[in-house]
Specification:
The longest helix is centred in the middle third of the chain and has 18 residues. A hairpin with an 8-residue loop joins β1 and β2. With 382 residues, this protein is of the alpha+beta class. The chain is built from 11 helices and 15 strands. It folds into 2 domains: 133 residues, PurM-like, N-terminal domain (60s Ribosomal Protein L30, Chain: A, 2-Layer Sandwich); 190 residues, PurM-like C-terminal domain (Phosphoribosyl-aminoimidazole Synthetase, Chain A, domain 2, Alpha-Beta Complex). The strands form 4 sheets. Strands 10-12-7-13-11-15-14 form a 7-stranded mixed beta sheet. A 4-stranded mixed beta sheet has the order 3-6-4-5, with helices on one face. Strands 1-2 form a two-stranded antiparallel sheet. The radius of gyration is 22 Å and the shape is globular.
């Protein structure tokens, strides 16, 4: 397991005087772990406000939650996730400065779905061999995204697994905690007949569906390091476009327009319809109008290379929609304008109905949630 780090906690490596040479013979480089911690400390420190107590050296990070005393009934929200096989692209082109943002987006943007403000996050990196500069680059990316979302990065761990993972392989995961007032939780119970579904643009593939991407590239005989004119650059670099961060802008809009947003959906694994269905009440349905947006060229190119229609990929890729906001009918224009002002392109893509309807062909519920029903209709805009 060692060399470890707890950059708001401790470095768990063993000094050479206490038998590090035998650990080194087993393939574990504790000195490299220590150097990685030193390289990342400044990045991590920038995410710390006065709520973060202590520094490098403890067994656990400490976060002062005295501010929660001002809540009437604070609920803690938590989420955990990883980046998935997008890491294969980062390894192929040796570019690791965006993966950290992908991780934060996958974790923290799930928390904001319930209307929660993120408080702190931890991460975990497993690798076959510690490359200090690469580990520091990964964590620096996590820290930058934590700064952007108002999240303190209070701890982490790097584990070296020689023999279990190849020397250049790694995986990264994280977990975060946020807080929301009990009477402000967003979700299906707030959604009403006539609510408007506002789509919020993605930055590209985000961090889902890369197994299909890799399958398509393999079938095309393309390497991640190849230049593809259709994509406008090196394949791996283009596909590493980092996941858009939604938390800070969404919280701004929630605060500015109280009660306007009834539910939020993060479009991740499972695709478009399934993720929206998860935040609708049972009996509610939505028809999303494809003609209201045009998927980015990266989706069109990959689908064409794979001999697929865009419709074939709707349950895998986000196709240009990274989030949905289900909003009160009379607030749709205000929410859309506020999102645009916050830097999130947004548009009306459908409406919620609870009227009796034939739901054949709809995606109904997902991931164990007995929710509403959603289907996409029409054709995408050119």
């Amino acid at each position: 397991m060692p060399p470890g780090r707890r950059y708001a906690g401790r470095v768990t490596s063993t000094p050479a005087a206490h038998g590090d040479s035998s650990y080194a013979a087993a393939g574990v480089d504790t000195a490299a772990g220590d150097r990685a911690v030193e390289l990342m400390k400044a990045s991590v420190a920038r995410t710390h406000g006065p709520e973060v107590l202590g520094g490098v050296g403890g067994f656990a990070g400490l976060f002062d939650v005295s501010a929660l005393l001002g809540y009437r009934r604070p609920l803690l929200a938590t989420s955990t996730d990883g980046v998935g096989t997008k890491i294969a692209l980062a390894l192929a082109v040796d570019k690791h400065d965006t993966i950290g943002q992908d991780l934060v987006a996958m974790v923290v943007d799930d928390i904001v779905v319930v209307g929660a403000k993120p408080l702190f996050m931890t991460d975990y990196i497993a690798t076959g061999k510690v490359h200090p500069e690469r580990i520091a680059t990964l964590v620096a990316g996590v820290a930058r995204a934590c700064e952007a979302t108002g999240t303190a990065l209070v701890g982490g761990e790097t584990a070296e697994h020689p023999g279990l993972m190849a020397p250049d392989d790694y995986d990264i995961a994280g977990a975060a905690v946020g807080v929301v007032e009990a009477d402000a939780v967003l979700g299906p119970d707030r959604v009403q007949h006539g609510d408007v579904v506002v789509a919020i643009a993605s930055s590209g593939l985000h961090s889902n569906g890369f197994s299909l991407v890799r399958h398509i590239l393999d079938g095309r005989g393309l390497s991640y390091t190849d230049h593809a004119q259709e994509l406008g650059g090196i394949v791996g670099e283009v596909l590493l476009e980092p996941t858009r961060l939604y938390t800070a802008p969404l919280l701004t809009v929630i605060d500015a327009l109280p009660g306007a947003i009834h539910a939020l959906s993060h479009v991740t694994g499972g695709g478009i319809a399934a993720n929206l269905a998860r935040v609708l009440p049972k009996g509610a349905w939505v028809e999303l109008d494809r003609s209201t947006w045009s998927p980015q060229p990266v989706f069109r190119t990959l689908a064409e290379w794979g001999g697929l229609s865009l419709g074939d990929t709707e349950a895998t890729w986000n196709l240009g929609v990274g989030f949905f906001a289900v909003v009160a009918q009379d607030a749709a224009s205000s929410v859309t304008r506020a999102l645009e002002a916050a830097g999130l392109p947004a548009w009306v893509a459908g409406r919620v109905s609870t009227a009796s309807h034939d739901l054949a062909g709809f995606e109904q519920g997902a991931k164990g949630v007995d929710g509403g029903a959603v289907r996409l209709v029409g054709s995408f805009a050119d």
